[in-house]
Amino acid sequence: MDNHDEGRAVPAPRRAPTQRLTRAHVVDTALTILAGVGLPDLTMRAIGTELGVQQSALYHHFENKQALLGAVADEIIARGPRTVSPPGGWQDQARQQCCDVRDAVTAYPDGADLVMSMWAFGMGGHAPFVGLCDLLVEAGLTHKVAPTAARTLLHFVYGHAYDEQSHDHAARSGITFGERAPTDFDTGVNIVLAGINALL
C-alpha cells in the first residue's frame, strides 16, 4: 500500500468482476447507482466498488468523471421513450419530442440536472437538440434561427423537469409547496411553440 492509502479505509469491492470491463458496463452501473442514490453519491469510487474494480480501471474507458457523466446523459436520453410522431403539423411533433425528453430525464433521480448540465457543457445529451433543430428547419425556420428556437424549448423542458424533481426532493424531506396545475408543462411548451410559430 502506498502512502496515500495510509490512515484511511479502502472499501472492499462488492463483487469480483466476472467479465471484461467495457464502457457499456461502466455506464450501466452508473445508471443503476443514479437510480438508487441520486447524483451526489454517483462517484467514481462507488462505480468501481459496484463493479469490483479499482477506480483507475474506469479511466481506461473515460478520461474523467465529466466524460463518464456525458455518456450517462446520452444513455438516459437513449433509454427514454421514442413515441411515433403524431399525425399533424410540426408543433404536434415538437410537443411530443418535448414530452419524451421530459419523461426520459425524470425517470432517474437528478436526471434533469445531469442531462441539462452535460448538454450545457457540450459533453453529452445532444440528441434532443439535434432532433428539434432538424424538425424546426423542416418547419421553415432558417439554419441560423432553428438552433436558438430548439435551445429555448429545451431550456423550458429541462428547467421544468429540474423544478419538478427539486420539489420531489423537498417533499421527501417534509417541505411542501403549493400544488401545480397538471397542465403546467403542456401550457409552457405551447407558449414557447406559439412564439416559434410567429417566426415562420
UniProtKB/TrEMBL annotation:
<dbReference type="Pfam" id="PF02909">
    <property type="entry name" value="TetR_C_1"/>
</dbReference>
<dbReference type="InterPro" id="IPR050109">
    <property type="entry name" value="HTH-type_TetR-like_transc_reg"/>
</dbReference>
<dbReference type="GO" id="GO:0046677">
    <property type="term" value="P:response to antibiotic"/>
</dbReference>
<dbReference type="Pfam" id="PF00440">
    <property type="entry name" value="TetR_N"/>
</dbReference>
<dbReference type="GO" id="GO:0045892">
    <property type="term" value="P:negative regulation of DNA-templated transcription"/>
</dbReference>
<dbReference type="InterPro" id="IPR001647">
    <property type="entry name" value="HTH_TetR"/>
</dbReference>
<keyword id="KW-0804">Transcription</keyword>
<dbReference type="InterPro" id="IPR003012">
    <property type="entry name" value="Tet_transcr_reg_TetR"/>
</dbReference>
<feature type="DNA-binding region" description="H-T-H motif">
    <location>
        <begin position="43"/>
        <end position="62"/>
    </location>
</feature>
<dbReference type="InterPro" id="IPR036271">
    <property type="entry name" value="Tet_transcr_reg_TetR-rel_C_sf"/>
</dbReference>
<keyword id="KW-0678">Repressor</keyword>
<dbReference type="GO" id="GO:0000976">
    <property type="term" value="F:transcription cis-regulatory region binding"/>
</dbReference>
<dbReference type="GO" id="GO:0003700">
    <property type="term" value="F:DNA-binding transcription factor activity"/>
</dbReference>
<keyword id="KW-0238">DNA-binding</keyword>
<dbReference type="InterPro" id="IPR004111">
    <property type="entry name" value="Repressor_TetR_C"/>
</dbReference>
<protein>
    <submittedName>
        <fullName>AcrR family transcriptional regulator</fullName>
    </submittedName>
</protein>
<keyword id="KW-0805">Transcription regulation</keyword>
<feature type="domain" description="HTH tetR-type">
    <location>
        <begin position="20"/>
        <end position="80"/>
    </location>
</feature>
<dbReference type="InterPro" id="IPR009057">
    <property type="entry name" value="Homeodomain-like_sf"/>
</dbReference>
